[in-house]
Amino acid sequence: MSTQPEPDCGSSSCIFSAKGGMRTNGPCRCYENAGFHGSAVMAAKQMLREVLLLRARLDAMPHDRTWTKDKPTPGEWWLALSPINRHPRRPPVMRICITGDGDMHLRESGGVSCIGWPEHLFDGALWMRDEHPADPFAELERTTP
Fold it and tell me: Which has the least CB within 10 A, 16, 33, 60, 75?
């Protein structure tokens, strides 16, 4: 997990930085550098709108991004076979589609193939739901008052 650098616009009036030494004159530009209004009050209004929109988007996202041993239901899944049941020519984690009839299809190299593996290969396997990602071009539009 990466950490964000501490805001510092380099101004001697920067309200975020605790750095000393030679700095440029003028007002703090951290809000503007982050894409908000230069005024703290106006920037706070913009930030509040953005925080509320981001919270709503986050609440609408599926939160179950953990591995489970439970037998999967129909849908798209990631499958990690137990190390003792892995095949040397298969990746350790595979994308699987389970149909409403319980058939399993392996998705690899742009194709789909039916899996006719014996049931014992799934002993100790872990599964994780494969949710479709959000559209990366559906960015939030910042509004300026």
Answer: 60
Q: Which residues in 40-69 are b (16+ Cβ under 10 Å) and which e? A: eeebebbeeebeeeeeeeeeeeeeeeeeee
Measured in residues, the chain has a length of 145
Interval 101-129: pLDDT, tens? 888 888 876 667 777 888 888 899 999 88
Go through 25-39 and write b for each residue having 16 or more CB atoms within 10 A of its CB, e for each that does not.
Answer: eeebbbbeeeebbee
Strands (E), 36-91: 75-80
Q: How far apart are CA 48 and CA 54, in angstroms?
A: 10
- For 22-79, the pLDDT digits (tens) are 788 888 888 888 888 878 888 888 888 888 888 887 777 655 568 889 888 898 898 9
- CA dihedral angle for residue 59, residue 61, residue 64, residue 70, rounded to 10 degrees: 130
Strands of the chain, DSSP E? 11-13, 24-27, 75-80, 93-98, 104-108, 111-114, 126-129
